Amino acid sequence: MTSIKVGMADFKVAKENGKLITVGLGSCVGIALYDPTTKIGGLAHIMLPDNTRQRAAGTKINLAKYANSSIDQMLEKMKALGANTSKIIAKIAGGAHMFKGANGILKIGQENVAAVKKKLKEKKIYLKADDTGADYGRTVELDVTTGKYSIRSAGRGVIVL
Questions:
Q1: If I label 22, which of 14, 101, 140, 153 is the partner at 20 to 30 A Cα–Cα?
Q2: Domain limits of the chain?
Q3: pLDDT higher at 42 or 135
Q4: What are the residue ranges of helices labelled H in 25-107?
């Protein structure tokens, strides 16, 4: 089975077999989208909730970096491979509170999770499972053959959603 690495601020899609893997999810969120009828899946590693300010400033941006645009891009690639958008489900992990700012103000993980959930709701994609929050990092793997989403955390073992 082929393993496909998904980098930070990146996404990949695959059909029928293979494992999509991303490491180093702290406040970032790993978004797995999967159509069980066509066995087409995608995995994104988003870093930030929204790119609105960057677009308004006219800055060239990496759309895969943001929850609001990465999900759109991933859905388009999945549809191009034959995915049925009405059958797609989502599983997410990450969004940890990694940075202890003044009075706990830096809550980028929480903001990322909220942005992902908002976008999934907007796209009418069912969020089947999530493992988000807390204060530890995660590595995730989407098995495109089965739709299983495995989450590894140091000292916490593996959970499968």
A1: 101
A2: 3-160
A3: 42
A4: 52-56, 67-81
Nearest to 48 by CA among 116, 103, 147, 127: 116
Over residues 72-113, the pLDDT tens digits come to: 999 999 999 999 999 999 999 999 987 666 555 568 899 999
Instruction: Yes or no: say if 36 and 89 are a contact pair by the CB < 8 Å rule.
Output: yes
**pLDDT tens, residue by residue, 6-32:** 999 999 999 988 999 999 999 999 999
Contact 70, 63 (CB under 8 A): yes
Q: Which of 6, 20, 21, 28 is catalytic?
A: 28
pLDDT in the model for residue 57:
61
Residue with tokens 């989450």: 151
Put simply, whether the predicted model's pTM sits higher than 0.85 gets the answer: yes
* DSSP-derived secondary structure for 91-153: EEEE-------GGG---HHHHHHHHHHHHHHHTT-EEEEEEE-SS--EEEEEETTT--EEEEE
Of 3.30.1330.200, 2.160.10.10, 3.40.1190.20, 3.30.365.10, the CATH number of 3-160 is: 3.30.1330.200
